[in-house]
Description:
By secondary structure, this protein is an alpha+beta fold. The protein has helices at residues 20-33, 51-59, 67-74, 78-83, 86-93, 139-156, 161-182, 187-192, 197-203, 207-222, 225-228, 230-233, 253-267, 272-278, 326-329, 337-348, 386-405, 410-417, 422-450, and strands at 6-8, 14-16, 102-105, 114-118, 124-128, 135-138, 234-235, 241-242, 249-250, 282-289, 300-306, 312-319, 357-360, 366-371. Strand 11 (300-306) and strand 12 form a beta hairpin.
Amino acid sequence: MGTAPIHVDASNSVHPRATQAELRAKGRKLREKYPRSSHGTWKAPRDRRDPVDLVEDANIGRLPELVPIRHGRMMLSPFTFYRGTALNMATDLATTPATGIRVQVCGDAHLGNFRLFATPERRVIFDIHDLDETLPAPWEWDVKRLAASFVVASRNNNLSEQVAREAVLNCVRSYREQMAEFGSVNVLDVWYASFEADTLIKNFRCKRHRKHLAKRLAKVRERSAFENDFPKLTSGGSDPKIREHPPTIYHWRKAKYQGAEAFYTYHDTLPSYRRGLLNRFELRDFAIKVVGVGSVGTACFVVLLMAGPEDPLFLQVKEARASVLEPYAGASIFPHHGQRVIMGHRLMQSSSDIFLGWTSGRSGRHYYVRQLRNAKIKFEIDRFDSSHMVQFAEHCGATLARAHARTGEPATISGYLGKGDIFDRSIADFSIAYADQAERDYEAFVKAIHKGRLEAFVEEK
């Protein structure tokens, strides 16, 4: 007879760890208190805060000159509004049912945060990319934000409600089945798991999509950072500087001094062997670079370093603020939000950037640092057709399950989810209802702009 596996907890006491069968039984037991069907409804609470008030709350502490750009990007469509309102949805998710099982969550798991990027070994993988809001919290919150994003994105692309629902069902089914698989293997097998770009591309049913992605992947693999980023982002010949493109890339006098000071503090957060690598590069330029939708207005910089005339390194220094989940899931154990973010990367991603580190500015702002591009391939979500949307949902669901399984008990979550589609259909119902809510909030947001309550600047394409 085999012995039960041993578990050492934080107090260093040693005790038998539950078997996978026991963990699954624990998950099934949770259905009595939290029926899977209970996740299927969304009804705004009577005391729900005004969505525009929450947008204004999220603007506090941002660079005021960039806030109109943030609003301009959010007003383009209900989908860009959804991407920019992680705080709004966090506030709503805190009122929805949750089993009490906590994992390291993304906190902003919409489909735009899943993409291809290179590992330190130069493999290209599919994974969650942005983890600015990461925190230990209920796993359901990520699933619901991701699932509802497929409905909002499908409507944005003029796809049918049937396609939107099918995408959600595919996403959640994939999450459930992948979680079941991780709940039946060894812990290290979960940590070694990754989703390779070649496998993802091969699995796309549409030949046109396969060829398009394969072509983009081949270009990424054959180009160096010099060939890809250097000519587009710099000017100045023998004395290269970051090329300005106001109002989204520009030099700021304070950034040159405050940014350089913060950059050298970042150096000390790297492991010693990676400090040696960084020391081979010379800091050449520092500029503000406006990125994304939800991040617009936070202090984000691009740094140019050179190890030789044709040997550049571009780093992104990105402000890390308190997670939008903290009021509802509790404060991070890390006193520095940059450290919170990079620890989230290391916990949730199957492979993370070798330059991940954190630092603080003279003003007291927290930052984290990573490579600016690192062979990243963003998906053209606004061009997805029905086939692409549904299949992308499958990949995102499986990837989220892998990320959650690394820090949670996949067998317990799997035991709760079960083998049937009750949870899948419940989340589909929730997603459609919440997409309706997001569209109503978007209308209120646009109305606030037209009335002059909020200022918006729409950039030229």
